[in-house]
Specification:
Elements: H1 3-11, H2 18-21, E1 25-32, H3 37-46, E2 51-60, E3 65-73, H4 94-108, E4 111-116, E5 121-127, H5 132-143, E6 148-155, H6 161-166, E7 171-173, H7 181-194, E8 199-202, H8 211-216, E9 221-226, H9 237-244, E10 248-255, E11 265-272, H10 279-302, E12 306-309, E13 312-315
Length: about 325
C-alpha cells in the first residue's frame, strides 16, 4: 500500500455512530437518595424547553444512593418581532448548561457530568502482539458502530503498524524495557495530552502500568483480560484451562487500577465450552469474549452510561 493510499483513507470520514447521530446532551449524576431528585432534574429541563429522549434511573436501596442518566435536547433560541413568536434564550452550550445545573447539583449533593451526545470520544488504543481486540475496535469505529474517534494507537511492537496505518490513524512505536519504562510512560502521557485523549483502551497491551500512570489515567483507562484470572496466570492460559477441563471461558473489561486486573468491572462475557474443544478452540472462544466485553465497555463509557461508585460500577443502559 502506498503512502497516498493511507493518506486517502485518513481523509475519509468514518460513519457516525447511531448513538451520537441523535445529538442533544447527556447528563449523568449520582447522589444520596432523597425525594425530589427527578422533579428537580425535569424542572431544570422544563425551564429550557428541554425534551427528554431517554431516562435511566437506579436507586440503590442497600446504600441509599441514586443514579441517573438523561439524554435530552434543548431547542435553538427563537427570536422575532411578532408577538406570536416566542422570544427565548435557552442555555445551549455544554459549558452554560453545566454552570446552570450546578445549583441543582449543590442542592442535592450530586456528582454529575454533562456532555454533548453528538461528539465522539477521543480514544487512544494500546496494544502489544495480539490484534483481535484492536482490529475489532478499529473496524467498528470505522463503521460508526462505536461513538469514538481513534486518534492514535501506541504499541511496544511493530506487528500492527500497517493495519493501523490502513485505517489512516497515527501509529506510535513505544518500546518498553525495565530501563526505558519511565521514559515510555512519559511518552504515552505526552501523546495523551497532545491528542486531547479522553479514554485510553488497553486492547491486550501486555505491559503493567506504574502506579503513577494509573493515577494519571484514573477513570479514563479501560483494560481487558480473560476471566481465568487468578486461576491461570502467565503464558498459555487456555492450554492451562484445557488441562484442567474448564467448562466456560470468558473475559472481563474493567477500569485500570493500581491493583492489577482488579479495577471496577464494566463488562463481562462468558461462553460454554466442552471436552471436545481443543486448546485452540478455547483460545478462539476467548478472543470472541474479549472483543465483545471490551467493545461493550468502551461503548458504555463513551455513551456516559457508566457511573463508578467505590469499587463498583452502575451501567445505565
Amino acid at each position: 500500500m502506498t503512502d497516498l493510499d493511507v493518506e486517502d483513507r485518513a481523509k475519509q470520514p468514518a460513519a457516525r455512530s447511531r448513538s451520537t447521530a441523535a445529538g442533544g446532551y447527556v447528563l449523568t449524576l449520582d447522589c444520596p437518595e432523597r425525594p425530589g431528585i427527578i422533579n428537580a432534574v425535569s424542572g431544570f429541563l422544563l425551564e429550557r424547553d428541554g425534551d427528554i429522549r431517554e431516562l435511566k434511573q437506579f436507586d440503590d436501596q442497600r446504600h441509599g444512593h441514586c443514579f441517573l442518566r438523561v439524554h435530552f435536547s434543548v431547542p435553538p433560541a427563537a427570536r422575532g418581532e411578532s408577538a406570536d413568536v416566542r422570544i427565548a434564550d435557552p442555555v445551549e452550550t455544554v459549558d452554560e448548561l453545566t454552570t446552570a445545573f450546578g445549583e441543582v447539583a449543590e442542592r442535592f449533593d450530586m456528582r454529575f457530568a454533562l456532555r454533548s451526545a453528538a461528539e465522539p470520544r477521543r480514544v487512544l488504543i494500546m496494544v502489544s502482539k495480539l490484534a483481535h481486540c484492536l482490529n475489532d475496535l478499529l473496524f467498528r469505529a470505522r463503521l460508526g458502530e462505536l461513538p469514538i474517534d481513534v486518534v492514535a494507537v501506541v504499541s511496544n511492537h511493530r506487528e500492527h503498524e500497517s493495519l493501523v496505518q490502513w485505517h489512516g490513524i497515527p501509529f506510535h512505536h513505544v518500546p518498553v524495557t525495565p530501563e526505558t519504562k519511565q521514559a515510555a510512560e512519559a511518552e504515552l502521557m505526552r501523546l495523551v495530552l497532545e491528542h486531547d485523549v479522553e479514554l485510553v483502551v488497553l486492547a491486550r497491551y501486555m505491559q503493567i502500568l506504574s502506579d503513577h500512570l494509573v493515577g494519571e489515567l484514573n477513570g479514563r483507562a479501560i483494560n481487558i483480560h480473560h476471566s481465568f484470572l487468578p486461576s491461570f496466570k502467565g503464558a498459555r492460559p487456555y492450554h492451562q484451562a484445557y488441562d484442567r477441563g474448564v467448562k466456560t471461558v470468558g473475559a472481563t473489561a474493567h477500569y485500570v487500577s493500581a491493583n492489577l486486573d482488579e479495577g471496577p468491572i464494566i463488562s463481562q462475557q462468558v461462553r460454554e465450552v466442552g471436552h471436545a474443544d481443543t486448546p485452540e478452540d478455547l483460545a478462539a472462544a476467548g478472543r470472541d469474549t474479549e472483543c465483545k466485553a471490551l467493545r461493550n465497555a468502551v461503548r458504555w463509557h463513551c455513551e456516559n452510561r457508566v457511573i463508578q461508585h467505590g469499587n463498583r460500577t452502575v451501567i445505565l443502559y
